[in-house]
Automatic annotation (TrEMBL), chain A:
Protein name: Proteasome subunit beta
UniProt similarity note: Belongs to the peptidase T1B family.
GO cellular component: a single term: cytoplasm
Active site residues per record: T54 (nucleophile)
InterPro entries per UniProt: Ntn_hydrolases_N, Pept_T1A_subB, Proteasome_sua/b, Proteasome_suB-type, PSB_actinobac
Catalysed reactions listed for this entry: Cleavage of peptide bonds with very broad specificity
One GO biological process term: modification-dependent protein catabolic process
Documented activity regulation: The formation of the proteasomal ATPase ARC-20S proteasome complex, likely via the docking of the C-termini of ARC into the intersubunit pockets in the alpha-rings, may trigger opening of the gate for substrate entry. Interconversion between the open-gate and close-gate conformations leads to a dynamic regulation of the 20S proteasome proteolysis activity.
Gene it is expressed from: prcB
Automatic annotation (TrEMBL), chain B:
Protein known as: Proteasome subunit alpha
Sorted UniProt keywords: Cytoplasm, Hydrolase, Proteasome
Pfam families in the record: Proteasome
Matching SUPFAM superfamilies: N-terminal nucleophile aminohydrolases (Ntn hydrolases)
Pathway this chain belongs to: Protein degradation; proteasomal Pup-dependent pathway
Chain positions covered by the region annotation Disordered: 229-269
Molecular function per GO: threonine-type endopeptidase activity
Length: 281, 269
């Protein structure tokens, strides 16, 4: 529904009422049917077939944080999309990667981005990183009814905390439970493999380039063992989406940059299929 | 019971217009100018927190003179309108024209409704295009009319004098530093004809910059960047003699401006 400008065409009173700086609050007053959480599903037998996004990984390094995702969406045993994008900038200093039902997740991200932008415009200041993470929590919680029917959305949120001057990572569960991760985190179907790969490779003093390599390595390992996670597709030139957030803000690596990282890893894996070996003791 | 006096509709409207104009004239003026890479907003504002200019949407900026609580409400209404429209359709479907229209309807309804006091505000809604031809600037006076402006516009207390000053000197394709300098010159003019100095700390400056790589083109210019731009002018006056020449030749016309410039002053009394 457009701005409800019936009769005189003037802005309705709700638009001019001071108070909330939240777009979601405004939407729930003005046109509640547009809020994702306000839809209810009829009771169904079994799971609903819809494309699912898979693995997202994040790792922090001194000075920032990297967030990356593979490009595959699956529907049951079928590949629904080879080049889906699952990592988005949330605002200048944060990004969100999504696993779960792709359609709902993309809508959630769109609303989340708007929520942050709206607050910033109305208040003239950005939300704190914790505040942003909490807003995302609320949005996931409002999707709980859908999650119970198999349409869950589980994002990973990463950002640069301007006050504390460091990169931070927040992971979520389907009920909106939020927990801050130290070092590295992953979500989605391949998350176990990705997390274990990072567990062996992560160090606290990684440089930005090393952190970028680390997350692409982790995605490679996830794709190696999880059928729903896509590896680098050399033939079609589809490589993971890799983003980095530092005090300079959000940056998404160009296609060539991310291809170079993925190809250099691929090259090494031709000789060592299981990737770099960690020390035994 | 007392019988109310008969007041002719013309008189009632004139009184309301007078009331609104006086309220607006109490506020400081601000100017909005086109320059080569976009649109610049310049105003005198001693407050760092209460802004006269703000971002409405990706390419749309908002400027207001007059009563703070009234234009702040309109600003938030505009942000909500734009965000809701962009969420419903697409970001490209939010236009300054649509927003100006909604503002005009809102101001017009309030102005002509006897139950409400007229808003003492004058707004500017500007949208930066992908090229200079696509730039749009709308001025919205208190009564709900829309004026489609080109090049430069001034609103607030001393607006008429400042606009005639700007009209004569503004040209297309100015650099940001040139436009900023011109704006500061215009704002420094006193209603009586004198000039005063406006220090950089009291200036509020924002731009809609079409060359910004981000989707959101609105940016505030503060601190070092602002002083650098203002200083660039001072340094730039020696190599570019042409603009300074024009200033000097125009100083005679400025005095004749003051003749017309007394017109708004006299209506204020």
């Amino acid at each position: 529904m457009e701005a409800n400008t019936r009769s005189t065409g003037r802005l309705p009173a709700a638009f001019l009422t001071p108070g909330s700086s939240s777009f979601m609050d405004f939407l729930s007053d003005q046109s509640p049917e547009m809020l994702p959480g306000n839809r209810s599903l009829p009771p169904l037998q079994g799971a609903i077939e819809a494309p699912h996004g898979t693995t997202i990984v994040a790792a922090s390094f001194p000075g920032g944080v990297v967030l990356a995702g593979d490009r595959r969406a699956t529907m049951g045993n079928m590949i629904a999309q080879r080049d889906i994008e699952k990592v988005f900038p949330a605002d200048e200093y944060s990004a969100v990667g999504i696993a779960g039902t792709a359609g709902l997740a993309v809508e959630m991200v769109k609303l989340f981005q708007l929520e942050l932008e709206h607050f910033e415009k109305v208040e003239g200041a950005q939300l704190s990183l914790e505040g942003k993470a909490n807003r995302l929590s609320t949005m996931i919680r409002s999707n709980l009814a859908m999650a119970m029917q198999g349409l869950a959305v589980v994002p990973l949120f990463a950002g640069y905390d301007v006050d504390r001057e460091k990169g931070r990572i927040f992971s979520y569960d389907v009920t909106g439970g939020r927990s801050e991760e130290t070092g590295y985190a992953s979500t989605g179907s391949g998350s176990i493999f990705a997390r274990n790969a990072m567990k062996k490779l992560y160090r606290e003093d990684l440089t930005e380039e090393q952190a970028l390599t680390l997350v692409v390595q982790a995605l490679y390992d996830a794709a190696d063992d999880d059928s729903a996670t896509g590896g680098p597709d050399v033939a079609r030139r589809i490589y993971p989406i890799v983003t980095v957030i530092t005090d300079e803000g959000f940056r998404r690596l160009g296609d060539q940059e991310s291809a170079d990282i993925a190809r250099s890893i691929l090259e090494r894996r031709l000789e060592q299929p299981d990737g770099p070996r960690a020390a035994l003791l | 019971m007392s019988t109310p006096f008969y007041v002719s509709p013309q008189q009632a409207m004139a009184d309301r217009a007078e009331y609104a104009r006086k309220g607006i004239a109490r506020g400081r003026s601000l100017v909005v100018l086109q320059y080569a890479d976009g649109i610049v907003f310049v105003g005198e504002n001693p407050s760092r927190a209460l802004h006269k200019f703000s971002e409405i949407y990706d390419r749309i900026g908002f400027a207001a003179a007059g009563k703070y609580n009234e234009y702040e409400n309109l600003r938030i209404g505009g942000v909500r309108y734009a965000d809701l429209r962009g969420y419903t359709y697409d970001r490209d479907d939010v236009t300054a024209r649509g927003l100006a229209n909604v503002y005009a309807q809102t101001l017009g309804t309030i102005f002509s409704s006897a139950a409400e006091k007229p808003y003492e505000v004058e707004l500017v809604v500007a949208e930066v295009g992908s090229a200079a031809e696509g730039d749009q600037i709308y001025r919205l006076p208190h009564d709900g009319s829309i004026v489609d402006e080109h090049g430069s516009v001034a609103v607030g207390g001393n607006a008429e004098q400042i606009s005639s000053f700007l009209d004569q000197r503004h040209r297309d394709g100015m650099t940001l530093a040139e436009a900023l300098k011109l704006a500061v010159q215009a704002l420094s003019r006193e209603p009586g004809g004198g000039e005063r100095e406006i220090p950089a700390e009291r200036l509020e400056v924002a731009v809609l910059d079409r060359t910004r790589p981000q989707q959101r083109k609105f940016k505030r210019i503060v601190g070092r960047q602002l002083t650098r731009l203002l200083d660039a002018d001072a340094a730039g006056t020696t190599p570019t003699d042409a603009p300074s020449d024009i200033e000097e030749t125009d100083s005679t016309t400025t005095e004749t401006d003051n003749g017309t410039g007394t017109a708004p002053g006299s209506t204020e009394e």
